[in-house]
Fold this sequence. Notes:
Blueprint: E1 5-11, E2 15-22, E3 28-35, H1 42-56, E4 64-69, E5 75-80, H2 84-97, E6 100-106, H3 112-120, E7 125-128, H4 138-149, E8 156-158, H5 165-174, E9 179-181, H6 195-212, H7 219-224, E10 225-228, H8 229-244, E11 247-252, E12 257-262, E13 282-287, H9 296-305, H10 312-324, H11 333-355, E14 356-363, E15 366-373, E16 381-385, H12 387-390, H13 394-402, H14 408-411, E17 420-423, H15 429-435, H16 440-450
Amino acid sequence: xxVSLVVAVDFGSxxxxxxxxxxxxxxxxxxxxxxxxxxxxxxxxxxxxxAVLEAADRGVRNAEVLACSSAGGGLRIGVVGNEELVTxxxxxxxxxxxxxxxxxxxxxxxxxxxxxxxxxxxxxxxxLLGGTDGGNAAVLLKAAETLAKYRWRTPxxxxxNIDAQAEITETLAAADxxxxxxENVVPEIGVFxxxxxxAAIREMFLEHVIGGKNxxxxxxxxxxxxxxxxxxxxxxxxxxxxxxxxxxxVDIGGATTDVHSVxxxxxxxxxxxxxxxAPHPVTRTVEGDLxxxxxxxxxxxxxxxxxxxxxxxxxxxxxxxxxxDPSYLPDSGREASYDETLASxxxxxxxxxxxxxxxxxxxxxxxxxxxxxxxxxEVDLLVGSGGVLRHNPPEVAARILxxxxxxxxxxxxLVPQHAEVCVDADYVLAAVGLLADDDPKAAEGLATHIHGxxxxxx
Length: 458
């Protein structure tokens, strides 16, 4: 019986990864990777991967191809909101969960000066939001007028006070500002509703950003790409959570460390939080100062501040070597140990920032527990990703991910405490996300590779 295949491709910032999957079972048939050919045409790297996949299984020639992309800098998002602690913070959360990298946040509205600064940050999409539904819309309307006055040409997603959207549409349309409407991200204080804005950002990414970056002359590239890679990965984490319960993923890269989490929120915890924007079950954060190469030196600073590094001078010197030569690979056991230290610190600090902490406060009413962030202590599955985990022996990955819980309970960090730990060794999480909506059975089958229960491809 012939096997029907589907191919999932991730055009990454450094490498293009591709997997061929049995669309019936989700079995991993073959995998390939090639450096992302941003210097010529990104499709060159895909064609090199395709040749490897076809050599493993000729059925690849007729397979449907789905893709995601973070090549060319990925999706750059600028957030324009009202109050920094409410709508601007909510906008950052939406942007990150949509797979974007937040390059600018403007709070307090948009002026001629801040508009000029925003333009210099070169966002691919601007997320415009502010005000609860039925509230004061003056700041939001003024921001739209500023964009129109200065002939803004970057796509705008409007996700603020719903009562102001008709007037905003009229203002932006009259000035030919490309825009799309979404439901209010903060319809009322204490409520966070990102889904509509996430979908609108994805629409803008596909319509304007993919073609606008001139990554390929081949029109099939735009037809292949379904979303930004981090957006797809977060969807893959949702599939994992449906199979295993609460899940957190930490992806340690050369420049950033990303954390994705999908958990069932406890309603009783709502009164313990201090945020004016409620937590959300599906969350992504990006730590731009935590990475194995380009951001290695800030990792040492963060680890020193947190008391996670013993030999600070030695590790700092090792970090400097890695920043100077991002392609550096350890050539001795000692250098490999420095990589392990950097990875342990990056993963630990990134998860602490993502999860937050709790503290006990004594006041007039007695002992009170306060929490900030998202409680991940009961996460069932902790997944590691990134080259430092995939390309080292399992015991190294176990130590790196095991270090996350160090002193967590004593210091109040809400990081995973008793989670089962595994590594996305075949780098299939993005493929799971790509398959999730079109072929959920295959997505679930492929997800077993992440947990180590499925056979490995070629």
